[in-house]
Amino acid sequence: MRVDLKARVLAATAAEPSPTRAAVGRRNILLSVLAAVSGMGGFVIFALLTSHSQLSRLGGDGALHQHLDRSVWLVVTTAGGALGVAAIALWLALWRGRSMLGRSRLWLLCGTALIPIGLFTWKIASGLAFDDPMVSWPERPGLRCLSLSLLVAAGPLLAFVAVRRSAPVHPGLNGAAMGVAAGACAWIAVDVWCPVAYVPHLLLGHVLPLFILAVAGALLGRALLSLRSR
After folding, report:
1. For the chain, which terminus, N or C, has the lower number of CB atoms within 10 Å?
2. String of b and e for 64-75 (b: at least 16 CB within 10 Å)?
3. Cβ pair 57, 166 in contact under 8 A
4. Is the alpha carbon torsion for 12, 13, 15, 21 positive or negative?
């Protein structure tokens, strides 16, 4: 019985030879380009269709007879901080760390939980540093930002799963970390486009998509990254 199993394993290994490092590198670069193009394409199409062709909304009517303007420095500060958090999220989700089996459960759980908190905290702190932009916007509850976040993050999430290919240990948590990383990348685009810093709006339109993407990533991870799925 053992001899038969060994023969089957050897036959399966010979039928699917491992790609070279150069081939894997080219494939990952292609997937990264496709992820970036899909995210930027989704952002441009959505913004042009829903905001009178404005790709960046620095101001708007916060309430009746009240017009608010975001300074360029506020946009640079919030988007720059979000870019740094997104870089950490990508590092956590796509690099295995020192172990070939990937990151530990604790690393993945902490990263998946702390990335949304970090983005939200930076957004609030940056807003407080520039006067007080966190006024109520009754006509902007956050549904458009929610839709934009999911649209921009969909392509990158699929690309991240394809780049990683497998996660022998904790495939669901690895997928969740990829979902949060894709959402963190989408956060940057949404932050540039959206002038609203009202806390209920941020929770619905900016933070909630991260957890939706985490759940979607966990499901994709269990379906595509586990050893059983292969």
Report:
1. N
2. eeeebebeeebb
3. no
4. positive
Contact 204, 147 (CB under 8 A): no
Give the list of residues 6+ apart from residue 120 with CB closer than 8 angstroms, or none: 202, 203, 206, 207
pLDDT tens-digit map of 63-79: 544 556 777 888 889 99
pTM recorded for the entire structure = 0.79
* 38/103 Cα distance (integer angstroms): 28
Phi, psi of 63 (to 5 degrees): -155, 180
Q: Which residues of 192-230 are buried (b: 16+ CB within 10 A; e: fewer)?
A: bbbbbbbeebbebbbbbbbbebbebbbebbbebbbeeee
Pairing status of strand 66-69 against strand 59-63: antiparallel
pLDDT in tens, 5-46: 556 555 555 555 565 666 556 766 776 677 777 777 776 777
Tell the residue number behind the tokens 């500060």, with chain if given: 77
Q: Which residues pair with 66 in a beta bridge?
A: 63
Residue 138's alpha-carbon distances to 68, 185, 199, 201, in angstroms, are 14, 27, 12, 9
Phi–psi pair at 59, nearest 5 degrees: -155, 180
